[in-house]
Amino acid sequence: MNKFLTNKKISVVIPCFNEAENIYTMYERLVKVFEKITPNKEFIFVDNNSTDNSERIYEDLCSSDKDVSAIIMSRNFGTSDSSYTAGTEYASGDAIVWIDGDIQDPPELISQLTEKWLQGYNVVYGIRKKRNAGFFWRWAANAFYKILNRYSYVEMPLYAGDFCIIDRKVADIFNSFPERDRFVRGLRAWVGFKHTGIEYTRLERNAGKPFASLGIYFRIAKKGIISFSYSPLTLISNIALVAMFLSLFALFIYPILAIFYPAPRGYLTILILMLFIASTQFFVLAILGEYVARIFEEVKGRPKYIIGKILNNHRV
Fold first, then answer.
1. How far apart are the first and last CA of the chain?
2. Rounded Cα distance, 29 and 15, in Å
3. Which of 101, 127, 86 is closest to 210 using CA atoms?
4. Distance (Å, whole) CA 297 – CA 301
5. Does 264 reside within a domain?
6. What gap in Å lies between CA 123 and CA 113, rounded to an integer?
């Protein structure tokens, strides 16, 4: 055990939704990992209103281990971003680890994350060098990371997921953000400070079936891009510019064509042009609508999440 870490506390935030088959396994692997790191720890399971028997498992763990807490949300608040937010605001450690409850990110890598943190890095994230998934999911995930990295106004680490360790300084700043519709890995990058990554292979789920559909992943990707990129708005300007030049070209070329083809013909051409212009307008309105919807969500000022109960509450 690292003697330096006996005076440091590490919190582990674990978002879960219907992960009853993985909770015990996650807990046991975390206990083994922290036997080599520090006895000064806390494991915070943040449950996004599961419908299985997860709560009973949390009760058993909390009653047998004082280092375990469970935050039960009042309802399902969507993606794990709200769960990471709640867990980070509750955590009291000198450093906070984020790790998904499906155990696709190996808990054993926390030792390496901690070593980098002790070397002075404020943020140490896992880089998904390889993932055990089907071709389509690998392609879609890689495409998202590359697009976000290319068009974000903040330098986004390529292939870096939520799995990480953040220093208390970073956590305090993260907790101070007022925004509600969060993309936590983007906020983590926005904070800055000294950061680095560790490459690893992301595994398949330890047990159970995945709950995130293609639609959910698409919404997450859309939220990440809109939250940290002005490129969709720039695209609107580019479309308008191209349309203007095409119109000027048409104004110039049509009078010349009219000399040789005085009678207008080609209703299909007109129909195609009308459909193209209309679809472009709807596309532009859709992009504007996404930004307006997020502004609307923020100005309402509702809580980022609502906690139903906390098991083994250490903050009372």
1. 31
2. 16
3. 101
4. 7
5. yes
6. 9
User: Could you list the residue range(s) of the whole structural domain that residue 237 is in?
Assistant: 231-299
pLDDT in tens, 57-87: 999 999 898 999 999 999 888 778 888 989 9
pLDDT digits (tens, 9 = 90+) for 109-155: 999 999 899 888 999 988 887 665 655 566 666 666 566 666 666 77
Helices 214-227 and 184-191 cross at an angle (nearest 10°) of: 30
Residues 244 and 204 in one domain: no
Cα–Cα distances (Å) from 6 to 32, 38, 90, 97, 117, in that order, read 16, 6, 21, 17, 15
Q: What pLDDT, in 10s, does the model give residues 219-278?
A: 666 666 666 666 666 666 666 667 666 666 665 666 666 566 655 565 556 656 676 777
- Determine whether 113 is exposed, middle or buried from the number of CB atoms within 10 Å of its CB (0-12, 13-18, 19+): buried
Nearest to 51 by CA among 285, 187, 211, 280: 211
In this predicted model, what pLDDT tens digit does every residue of 198-208 receive, in sequence order?
888 877 766 65
Query: Contact 165/117 with Cβ under 8 angstroms?
Result: yes
- The CATH number covering residue 114 comes to 3.90.550.10
192: left (phi over 0), alpha (psi -120 to 50) or beta: left
Distance between CA atoms of residues 310 and 72, nearest Å: 6
pTM: 0.72
